[in-house]
Amino acid sequence: MKKKLPLLACLLIILSACSTTKKTSHSAVDTRINNIVWAVTSFRGKAINDSDFPNGGPLITFNMQDSRINGNDGCNTFMGLATYKDNSITVGALASTKMACPYNNIANSFYDILASKHLTWRLDSNETLRLYVNDAEVMALKEKQ
Q1: Structure confidence by residue, pLDDT tens digits, 5-33
Q2: What pLDDT band is residue 144 in, cutting at 50, 70 and 90?
Q3: What CATH code is carried by the domain that includes residue 82?
């Protein structure tokens, strides 16, 4: 019995520590951008028109509480893990569908941007979400209506 008590105490401490870590990570959720479907309105300085994409324009959803990201590049659907800290986003490996879309000329650059080590965001006064790589704007997004 005496040997089981210290083991039980250690187990409770470990479980308690895991619970505390989980609560801390949830406090970083920014409700202004979290779990909102964002439509890409500008890509590398050029306006995006949904009519240029037969299946609809590119979309991104940032799920901060679950450390996930998902969306559509204007052709293929993607999903993956992401780390959110302050205004930085670090996207891990992404899985995506592999449909052939000859009209989609932004797909490769789209994923290169998401994979950037220096991806940051800012929400401006017009409620436009702007993504930056090395302080250069690469995408502008508006909440999908």
Answers
A1: 444 444 445 444 443 333 334 447 899 99
A2: very high
A3: 2.40.128.270
Residue 83 belongs to some domain of the structure: yes
Which of 112, 132, 116, 142 lies closest to 45, judged by CA?
132
Q: Which of 119, 112, 44, 39 is nearest to 85 (CA)?
A: 119
| pTM of the predicted structure, to 2 decimals | 0.79
**First-residue to last-residue Cα distance in the chain:** 62
* Residue 48 one-letter amino acid: I
In a domain, 18, yes or no: no
Question: Contacts for 93-96 with beta carbons within 8 Å, 24 or more apart?
Answer: 94/69
Q: How many domains does the chain have?
A: 1
Our CA angle for 60, 26, 145, nearest 5°, is 30
Least Cα distance to 97 among 74, 77, 82 occurs for 77
**Amino acid in the structure at residue 95:** A
With a CB cutoff of 8 Å and minimum separation 6, the contacts of 68 are 79, 80, 81, 82
pLDDT over 90 percentage in the chain: 67
